[in-house]
Amino acid sequence: MPGWLTEPGILWLIAAALLAGIELAVPGVFLVFIAVAAAITGAFTLLFPDLGLGGQLASFAVWAAVAVAIGRRWYGGDAVASADPLLNDRAARNIGRTVVAVTDFAHGEGRVRLGDGEWPARGPAMAAGTAARVVAIDGVTLVVEPQSSFPE
């Protein structure tokens, strides 16, 4: 093995390149900040060859914290305003929709037709064929109330 491959600074730079490569292969916008910290530590180790393992690890820890903090500030918390805030919440989009009871509701449970599918539902006693409105979602169960209880 060449002598330059045993240099700690070079090993840190190789680690940085590997982390950056992994980030490119499996994007997650996280390893890039750790790669930056490893690269800075590698540069410091090359500039200051007497820096021991403890100093290298301390440098890496500090630069990793700084890089992650900058990354969080840069990428985090800036939610994009949407014209349709329920776009990716399919369950919440069903609240307020009209459904039809497919079965009689016994003990507060039954099935309703929503669109082209049947869903388990909870609600007051009602006969099959009764129109109802979805008022909440509990997991995959629709919570419904008869349509007549809503003012039109």
Automatic annotation (TrEMBL):
One of its GO terms (cellular component) is plasma membrane. It holds the Pfam family NfeD. It is found in: Membrane. This is NfeD-like C-terminal domain-containing protein. Keywords: Membrane, Transmembrane, Transmembrane helix. The keyword 4Fe-4S does not apply. The chain crosses the membrane at residues 12-45, 51-70. Residues 93-146 form the NfeD-like C-terminal domain. It comes from the Bacteria. It is a multi-pass membrane protein.
